[in-house]
Amino acid sequence: MMLYYFAAFIAALLFAIVNNKLILPNLEQSLGLIWIGIFTSAIAWTSWSLAIGKGDTSKIANLAYI
């Protein structure tokens, strides 16, 4: 997932630079981006990966629908 996020970041950055629409976020927006990046994405994907690797896959896979 880290590679996908990094590739998307590079693509979006290049697109914004080419189109002269590069806008840097303010502090409040930056904190929101950090919150989404760390807590809702990084920790969730890491927990999911560890659970799939160590637990009963058929039971854990059903948790995605909750």
The biggest sheet amounts to: none
Mean pLDDT: 85
| Structural class label | mainly alpha
Q: What is the gyration radius calculated from CA atoms?
A: 16 Å
Low-confidence parts, pLDDT < 50 over ≥5 residues? none
The helix count comes to 3
The best one-word shape is elongated
The fraction of residues assigned to DSSP E strands is under 5%
Give the tally of β-strands: 0
- Please trace the helix and strand order, writing H or E for each element: HHH
Helix fraction bin: over 70%
Instruction: Calculate the terminal CA-CA distance, rounded to whole Å.
Output: 21 Å
Structural account:
By secondary structure, the chain is mostly helical. The chain has three helices and no strands. It has helices at 2-18, 27-54, 57-61. The two termini are 21 Å apart. The mean pLDDT is 85.
Which terms summarize this structure?
mainly alpha, 66 residues
Layout of secondary structure:
Blueprint: H1 2-18, H2 27-54, H3 57-61
TL;DR of this structure?
The protein is mainly α and 66 residues long. Helices cover 76% and strands 0% of the residues.
